[in-house]
């Protein structure tokens, strides 16, 4: 397996140009800063120049002195002070403005990532700079055993397959897995022709009783002294927030020691993209169609992880595959908590087929959903309360996210305003729960553009759903 | 008979980059790199620093043996190519050994161009193009008091500085009225000339050497104004010419260098050329020129390598851009693009300050060239702005005031 490397990521919308990163770099390196923040296109916008530690580094290839090398172990482009002849040719190879002459002394300077603990990232107060651990994660988990058969029949670009494989790599063989009806068994976790699709015991409960069955299995293992087994579910949002809700709620209320992972693709995607209780307002689904009368779903989604907080479960967290570092951190804590009580991990999972997202844009959709606060990343324990694991401050507008998702293509300005207001309301509520002072956002002062259940008397009667039993 | 699917003749920047490009597409195809040098690969550009003693000869190699083992490329030093038969696909070496190839890269670089000055061939003189040249010069300058340098290009000026720093009395004779002709404008030249003068180096600009004669183990160079310049050693640095002699009779089309198209293909089937030996597209003029700089060699090497390995998705090359980074007595002079351009269609902004000089050339509100002295900038970013023909629009004034900051902003926006 090849090695991957960690990098410094820049989130331009969060940068306020304070310059702390440059000060910190200068101080640590005793010279000019290796990172450069410059004014952007509009007032208050900023751009950055910093070494990308390219995999295909042109600075290295144009150096006549062999003074620059790509370090195969750290990924950093190393600079040798001894070999460098100060010719500056490397500066012609860099299109990022990331290797340049120090005004004092005149030698070239570039970022060396401070050996893996960059001073600029530690100094950044706005969260604009992040030390991305994706490379380490790849190295660490890439070596772990994949618990599924190679040929799962997910759609191209399926995020749920990614979640299944990553989660089970970390959980390992010492587990019993329940996969209730949905995409996960649909793509092959339960197997074919009498053989399972996993390397761990797997079963296929009803959509309604997953948490109940797991509770029984855990109790039996406890009884026979096998307290090391992770008893867990990989369930969809339908089986969690709708049909299986009572079982999940009951298990959480009783404090059953299980790990419940909800893979939320915002609908019953496996059976033909029907709406669920987790489907957001405005979404096109096959049961909330878009036509002359209806313009997608008319109700807001229920926030299942917040419902689990209300159960005071042992651990509750939300996660996204665009942020694998913290997904893995939360997974570690969720597994640990599952030996003490009900542990609930809610992973948002865009569905390329059902959401009408290009298969190569799924992770981008994940990222934008978080950057826009459409989904928020946080965790909760009864002891520590709720805390954001990723700041919801300075979000991008929800419309930027919605425009990338096909199932929202039809949304008009009123509907988008409603979604934005809903997002702001959720964040404000979470901030109060997190103990952060928050006033009600301005968007809520006015009534939402359209209530989630339109007033049937005011306009020609609308059917909220086209599907009737 | 030795043979290789990919035969690379030449071991400097173009050849090494082609090797890398080929291996990205073809991990296993047999490959060999032949070079007339006896050492592991090095860059001619580093040689002035070997001459000055700043770089040790054994510390300037660009790739070690292990690299060639890892990449599965046979490295054959001391193998000078003597002729090419494109029909039989054979390269014949000086010792008669023949290599058969499927695909050939000509990356034999350039060699010093020796001007036809009467008497020059009958006196001992130095050039600076190989590691051996650099080591010889270093030895010789330790024994000399006076040196004469023909040519005030990059090699000539570098060497003159090194000789002066070593305590020699140095005279530089240059045909043109400025130093670094073709790279920089007259005002930038003046600053460099002043620095050389203040270090006691005699720059004889606008002068032609008409006669060279031996003199007590040294030389005497007569100039066109009748003066005789004497030296214990003579360095000829009047430019280079592409190494194409070995291609005579091969049918490969040659002008000043090996003519190549926008994928570095020569006129012969399955033969590519890259680097200082190649005459390829010039970005600004749209004509084919020998650019003779490392960035172009690297670009051409990469394109040639990908094309040799059958990459069908390459975009045609937009052409090479002049890039020059030069230090004199520790001070930087950097230029990119048509930095010395003037006349119709060009908007030239010259910023002359006591401690630094900047000249920006725009055409149609787009950057086409920039040069600075004592004010280094992001040469790579300026190159991108020129290549992409970025319209500076309303940012023009801001750019002129601070090209580094605005350049970084523009590229950062572009990359996101």
TrEMBL record, chain A:
Record PANTHER family: 2-OXOACID OXIDOREDUCTASE (FERREDOXIN), PYRUVATE SYNTHASE SUBUNIT PORB
Superkingdom assignment: Bacteria
Domain annotation 4Fe-4S ferredoxin-type: ranges: 42-73, 75-104, 105-134
GO biological process: small molecule metabolic process
GO molecular function, one term: thiamine pyrophosphate binding
Record bears the keyword Magnesium: no
First and last residue of the signal peptide: none
Gene3D superfamilies named in the record: 3.30.70.20, 3.40.50.970
Tagged with keyword Oxidoreductase: yes
Native organism: Magnetospirillum moscoviense
InterPro entries in the cross-refs: 4Fe4S_Fe-S-bd (IPR017896), PadI (IPR054808), PorB-like (IPR051479), THDP-binding (IPR029061), TPP_enzyme_TPP-bd (IPR011766)
Protein name as it appears in the record: Phenylglyoxylate dehydrogenase
UniProtKB keywords: Oxidoreductase
Comp. bias regions, Low complexity: 444-454
Alphabetized SUPFAM superfamilies for the sequence: 4Fe-4S ferredoxins (SSF54862), Thiamin diphosphate-binding fold (THDP-binding) (SSF52518)
UniProtKB/TrEMBL annotation, chain B:
GO terms of molecular function: oxidoreductase activity
Record domain NADH-rubredoxin oxidoreductase C-terminal: where: 322-388
Domain FAD/NAD(P)-binding: 5-301
Keywords linked to the UniProt accession: FAD, Flavoprotein
Cofactor: FAD
Alphabetized PANTHER family for the sequence: NITRITE REDUCTASE [NAD(P)H], PYRIDINE NUCLEOTIDE-DISULFIDE OXIDOREDUCTASE DOMAIN-CONTAINING
Family per record: Belongs to the FAD-dependent oxidoreductase family.
Name recorded for this polypeptide: Phenylglyoxylate dehydrogenase
Organism, scientific name: Magnetospirillum moscoviense
